[in-house]
From TrEMBL:
<feature type="transmembrane region" description="Helical">
    <location>
        <begin position="125"/>
        <end position="152"/>
    </location>
</feature>
<dbReference type="InterPro" id="IPR050125">
    <property type="entry name" value="GPCR_opsins"/>
</dbReference>
<keyword id="KW-0157">Chromophore</keyword>
<keyword id="KW-0600">Photoreceptor protein</keyword>
<feature type="domain" description="G-protein coupled receptors family 1 profile">
    <location>
        <begin position="1"/>
        <end position="181"/>
    </location>
</feature>
<dbReference type="InterPro" id="IPR017452">
    <property type="entry name" value="GPCR_Rhodpsn_7TM"/>
</dbReference>
<dbReference type="InterPro" id="IPR027430">
    <property type="entry name" value="Retinal_BS"/>
</dbReference>
<dbReference type="GO" id="GO:0004930">
    <property type="term" value="F:G protein-coupled receptor activity"/>
</dbReference>
<dbReference type="GO" id="GO:0016020">
    <property type="term" value="C:membrane"/>
</dbReference>
<keyword id="KW-0807">Transducer</keyword>
<dbReference type="GO" id="GO:0007602">
    <property type="term" value="P:phototransduction"/>
</dbReference>
<protein>
    <submittedName>
        <fullName>OPSP protein</fullName>
    </submittedName>
</protein>
<keyword id="KW-0681">Retinal protein</keyword>
<feature type="transmembrane region" description="Helical">
    <location>
        <begin position="79"/>
        <end position="104"/>
    </location>
</feature>
<keyword id="KW-0297">G-protein coupled receptor</keyword>
<keyword id="KW-1133">Transmembrane helix</keyword>
<keyword id="KW-0716">Sensory transduction</keyword>
Length: 192
């Protein structure tokens, strides 16, 4: 889950930089792409390995069908890890919202100059940006909220059954963005 979230953040930032002209799109140079992939996996490993070495722990999640961080432990060791995980693996990846918001502003500025075809392109990008941000928020905020309530709320407040849907949403988030790109990107949908 964290790899997918960080990968989406890197992708959104790369797309923002490419579309706003901060970096040039070069289809023959994969160095930046591989750097982004390696950084995503390394960053995710840095934040998922600590429970293996004693900072918090992993255990059954929800009704016991999946494994995740032990959200229910109330000790300081676990709480500090949960706070860091929340900040570095959810709040910081909110660069997605920033990147797509800035991208939308740039597209609007360009379409103000080109009134004809720019308007329909702006509307398509606007829809794609709004759908991606909503999917990001719908997938990860319920999971983060349930995790924080389980960690810092009263014991038993979050039942195993109540944690199933947020967990499934977060873990299935990797499926949604390719679908959004395929159906809302005119260049990709023309191929099908």
């Amino acid at each position: 889950g964290i790899v997918s979230l960080i990968s989406l953040a890197v992708l959104s930032y790369k797309r923002y930089c490419t579309m706003t002209g901060k970096t040039e799109a070069d289809a023959t140079n994969y160095r930046k792409t591989w750097t982004g992939i390696v950084l995503s996996w390394t960053y995710s490993l840095v934040w998922t390995a600590p429970p293996l070495f004693g900072w918090s722990s992993y255990g059954p999640e929800g009704p016991g069908t999946t494994c995740s961080v032990n959200w229910h432990s109330k000790d300081a060791n676990n709480a500090s890890y949960i706070i860091c995980l929340f900040i570095f693996c959810l709040v910081i990846p909110f660069v997605i919202v920033y990147s797509y918001g800035r991208l939308l502003c740039t597209v609007r500025r360009v379409s103000a100059v080109n009134k004809g075809t720019g308007r329909s392109r702006e509307q398509r990008i606007l829809i794609m940006v709004v759908v991606m941000v909503i999917c990001f928020l719908l997938c990860w905020l319920p999971y983060a909220t349930v995790a924080l309530i389980a960690t810092f709320g009263k014991p038993g407040l979050i039942t195993p059954a109540a944690s199933v849907i947020p967990s499934i949403l977060a873990k299935s988030s990797t499926v949604y963005n390719p679908i959004i790109y395929i159906f809302l990107n005119k260049q990709v949908s023309k191929m099908f």
